[in-house]
Task: inverse folding
């Protein structure tokens, strides 16, 4: 891993996480309550026709946990499972087929728009961390967006420092409910505002694709163990 990638990954995790060593990381993350299910949830249940199976897409997270009263359609479970895999550092080209070409990924220091940028963000996790362990997840809303609490332990590659990250994930889908158009990783329930935050996020989304290699095809993807 180049020094540029390491610096980017450390900056991201240091900004995002509650560290086991408080002198290393100053920011922390807490679980937030998510949105109320929208009226589109019922319509999304009709999107299950011709939905590919998790095994066909290589999705590993098939036991999606939900809060009381939350009922996900088959297509929603597939999308949530794929997103959990991505946050666990288990990307693949097949899983990212569930995203539209112009989809976006946002967190407080990243604004990745379009396939080239968001694919690099997900594959970058494999480069930045030696261990990724999902400690807890729970889907709290089956609307559009789908809302999910997520808690993950990360170990920074090369440094051995562990980080525990808690956030709310918002998964926005297209009208058919079969494709992801936007994913938001909300820390403390918010995304940053203002010109400085926007400029920093745009810079990160441009720099990461320049250093993180995305597989060109499924054969190359398989060689990486994805």
Result:
């Amino acid at each position: 891993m180049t020094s540029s990638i390491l610096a980017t990954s450390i900056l991201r995790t240091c900004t995002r996480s509650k560290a086991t060593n408080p002198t290393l990381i100053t920011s922390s993350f807490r679980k937030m309550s998510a949105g109320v299910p929208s009226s589109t949830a019922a319509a999304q249940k009709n999107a299950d026709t011709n939905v590919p199976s998790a095994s066909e897409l290589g999705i590993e997270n098939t036991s999606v946990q939900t809060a009381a009263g939350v009922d996900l359609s088959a297509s929603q479970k597939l999308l949530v499972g794929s997103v959990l895999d991505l946050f666990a550092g288990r990307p693949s080209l097949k899983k990212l087929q569930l995203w539209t070409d112009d989809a976006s990924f946002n967190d407080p220091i990243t604004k990745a728009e379009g396939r080239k940028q968001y694919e690099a963000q997900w594959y970058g996790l494999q480069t930045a961390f030696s261990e990724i362990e999902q400690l807890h997840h729970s889907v709290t809303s089956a609307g559009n967006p789908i809302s999910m609490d997520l808690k993950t332990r990360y170990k920074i590659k090369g440094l051995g420092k562990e980080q525990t990250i808690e956030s709310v994930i918002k998964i926005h889908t297209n009208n058919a409910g079969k494709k992801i158009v936007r994913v938001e990783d909300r820390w403390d329930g918010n995304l940053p505002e203002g010109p400085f935050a926007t400029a920093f996020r745009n810079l990160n989304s441009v720099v990461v694709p320049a250093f993180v290699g995305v597989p060109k095809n499924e054969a190359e993807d398989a060689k990486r163990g994805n």
Remarks:
- The chain has seven helices and seven strands.
- Residues 3-214 form a domain with the Nuclear Transport Factor 2; Chain: A, fold (CATH 3.10.450.50).
- The chain has one domain: 3-214.
- The first helix runs from residue 3 to 16.
